[in-house]
Amino acid sequence: MLEAMLPSLWATQGEPTRIAAWLAVNLVDPLALLAQLRDTILDLLDAGAVSEVELAVACAWAVAQATQHPEATALAHWCHGLALLNRETRPALSHLDAAYAYFVAQDRRPEQGRLLIGRAGLLGQLGRLDEAHTAIRRAAECLAGAPDAQNRLPALYMNRSDIEGRMGHYEAMLTTAREAEALAVSHHQPAAQAEALINQAFAALFLGQFTQAEATLERAGAVAEACGSAELRARVAVNQARLATYRGELFTALRLLDQARTDFATARIELDQATVALEEAVLFERLQLPLEARRAALQAAHMFEQAGLLQEAVEAILSAVRLALALDQNALARQDLARATALAMQSPLPPVLQALLQGYTAHPRFQRNAAERRLALAQVAAAQATIADAGVLAEQLELELLAAALTQHARAAVRRYQHLADMAREHGLDGIEQRALVGQARRMSATEAWVPLQRAADLAAATRRMLPSEELKASYLTGTAPLYAHLISSYLQAGRLEAAVQSLLEAKGGIWAELAAPSADSLHASLLQDPAWLSAKTAWDYWRAQMHPEDELAYQTLCAERIKQAETTLQSLARQHLRQRPVQTLPALASIQQCLPSTSVGVEYLVADGQIWAFLLTADAAVRQVELGSVAQVTQLLSRLTLQHHALGHCSSPAQQQRMATGQLAASERLLGELYHLLIAPIIATFAADVNQVIIAPDGPLYSVPWAALRDHTQAASRYLDEEYNLHLIPSLALLAMPPVPQATGTPLLLGWEGQPALPYVVAELAAIQRQFPSARQVYPAHLRDLHWEEPPTFLHLAVHGQVNPYAPLLSQLSLADGPLLLADVLNVPLAGTALVTLSACETGTTPERGGVALALAGAFLSAGARAVVASLWPVHDQATSLMMEQFYQGLAAGQNPTEALSAARAAVRAMGYAHPYYWAAFQLLLREGTPTVAVALPYIL
């Protein structure tokens, strides 16, 4: 075959003059050779052989230059256009146009027909739909009666199908794609068959036929695999990711996108790699993971830049700028803007994209004084005029937010924000309305700001109630969101303490109220059964992806109209389905107080604006507020403790570690004592004499505090906090008044794997637990499949390696024998009613920098339905951990509840010679529901 000759042809002949000599000596017809190269490129593209395609194009141009024949040049353009067909749309069209012009001049209709098929597809991708429709009709006319016309028909019908879809004719798209498949099968073109199946699935989605789309994509995947085409596998995976997204299976969607990006990289298709990275950025942002979203957007920008698509690169960078500003990373935003500006100087931007770049450059955070803000406001106004002319509403309102922030007079700014909020509400843009309301509140007096802030909080809660549970779990921020922090502060300044506490409970407990009832899943499931919803959702996603600032205005207008139609349908259907289910109401403050035992105190912590507050709830007294000071002091003390633990964990021998632990003990006690005086002492001063139980709801970095190890280091006779009080940790005091999940009754399960480096005490730890609970099922080595069951286990124990990923929390993991159990996987493990999950591993209770306890492994198990989780705050000592677990389960078997058993286990480990808190204070018990003294008992395993 010719492709087998390409390397030797190029290697031996090299430059055009030598190729001309070779052609003459070997009596090779250059035009026939170029025609063969053209057809070979099609075969190589189907096989995903990118290197060979590039070599074939190089040979084609060398032959054309050697012969200097106009037809040879036209054929070389044809070869080059085919090679770029699915990679670089505009350059590909330019090459095919050059070839087409020659064959039109020569009145060669069969060649015109073949070229028109490719041109029609490219014109459709660029949004020039009338031209595309004309081209595909003309292609059919030119090919009529041509000798090899039948072989070209699958491609013709495929491109016609694509154009019908872009024109909104979805029934026609489906019918034509089916005809394309039948033609591809009859002409033994499996790659064309796979592409036709992908188009069928796409059309089925537009028509609301979810099950059919899913089955069709499975067939397409099987055909793509049989072809051995990485590019086709990737295209199937991208569409399967969209299906997973519509189902609310966002983690599955991320995995499929990752697979698609890998396959596109294998096929060396940078443009599609970049597009997939942008889709990943959108998903990460939807999951409230802005750091990951920004990295994905910048990755996409880099790949666009490498492919020479500078306008697309600028668009991706501006997404990264927006995310950096949302993260308060002003320096990074400046850096991104400088990069975008540099790219814009190399390639003139379309007006809309240029306006967005100007708008972000004028952001108020980059202006140092009033004069600069006035100039920036004028710059934003000019950008707004450009955006308004293009009719791109969302971008127009984004710039209006900047203009309002730059407005110097408070009353004028408030009016501007109010007008913006009204416009956003009118068009169903809840996110922009929330931001406008927050901006308005910042320019109002503290005693009035709570009004727009409460409206913004209500919008956030309504959005949360409509999320499928997977998205709900992953997007939950335990650290109070800035919106709620501002609202709480406003209520406090207005003297409305109870309203402030109720807002705090909503901020930290609302997520758990939603998870307590599967309302979000019920809503999503009912929507998926509604063909109108699926059709509108597909249209909304598709047309949003199609609309780019660099596109022609007519196509942008078409996309905007389709998006608006889909949004109207989605909003209407969502409201209908929302009325079909009850709203999960957060318990009132009085209800929570009634659930508190008379001798207990509930402490709801708040970390906001760099300060720490504690709100104290009891059964029979008014709420009390205590201001505790700067959070920076706490984080500094925790950092010093971390350094101590790191040093102990890296000792060369047990003897050296014991010596270091003894030497560090006093310093460690001082650090813990300082935490005690910052976080606990001011609160204890308000306790009644008979208080014996403290229920703590941490916030943000306070989840990293080893609460049980705190004590007054200035008093020699003082006891640790968990010795002084019955100590409980819970994400929010609101959970105390929520109805309990029915107790699971499945067989208790013990899973272990020593991993690498080997954990020598895992086997002994599992054996010790099973001696206490003989009915438990022990699995060693444990595999991922062992986490599948018909009935959730009564309790679950995992003795494995744990690894936190601080940059991508969803990828934190527990190591099992056949691979990692990711945090993203844990969120979907069926654990409803499991009384206790024990994570005997390192750092399983560690929270990420952004995103709270639900993005720690411990919180993921709680979100999955466990009623209580034991987890660690730092890399733990293997032998001391094994001893603690043995003592812990002895206590459970003796009838203690988990809180009591863990406290007793800590004391036992200290008595065994492990006095340093490093050995015994890492493990904490985090509760999910109910009155702790009742809900955490294990009645089915005693």
Secondary-structure blueprint:
Blueprint: H1 2-13, H2 16-25, H3 30-47, H4 50-67, H5 70-83, H6 89-105, H7 109-125, H8 129-143, H9 149-166, H10 170-186, H11 190-206, H12 210-227, H13 230-246, H14 250-266, H15 270-286, H16 290-306, H17 310-326, H18 330-346, H19 351-361, H20 370-390, H21 393-406, H22 410-426, H23 430-442, H24 450-465, H25 469-474, H26 482-493, H27 497-516, H28 519-528, H29 531-546, H30 553-579, H31 589-594, E1 600-608, E2 611-617, E3 624-630, H32 631-649, H33 654-679, H34 681-684, E4 693-697, H35 721-724, E5 726-729, E6 749-752, H36 762-772, E7 777-779, E8 795-799, E9 801-803, E10 813-816, E11 819-822, H37 823-826, E12 836-840, H38 857-863, E13 868-872, H39 878-893, H40 898-911, H41 917-920, E14 923-927, H42 932-935
Parallel strand pairs: 1-4, 4-5, 6-7, 6-8, 8-12, 12-13
Antiparallel strand pairs: 1-2, 2-3, 9-10, 10-11, 13-14
Helix pairs in contact: 1-4, 2-4, 3-4, 3-5, 4-5, 5-6, 6-7, 7-8, 7-9, 8-9, 9-10, 9-11, 10-11, 11-12, 11-13, 11-29, 12-13, 13-14, 14-15, 15-16, 16-17, 17-18, 17-19, 18-19, 19-20, 20-21, 21-22, 21-23, 22-23, 23-24, 24-26, 26-27, 29-30, 32-33, 36-39, 39-40
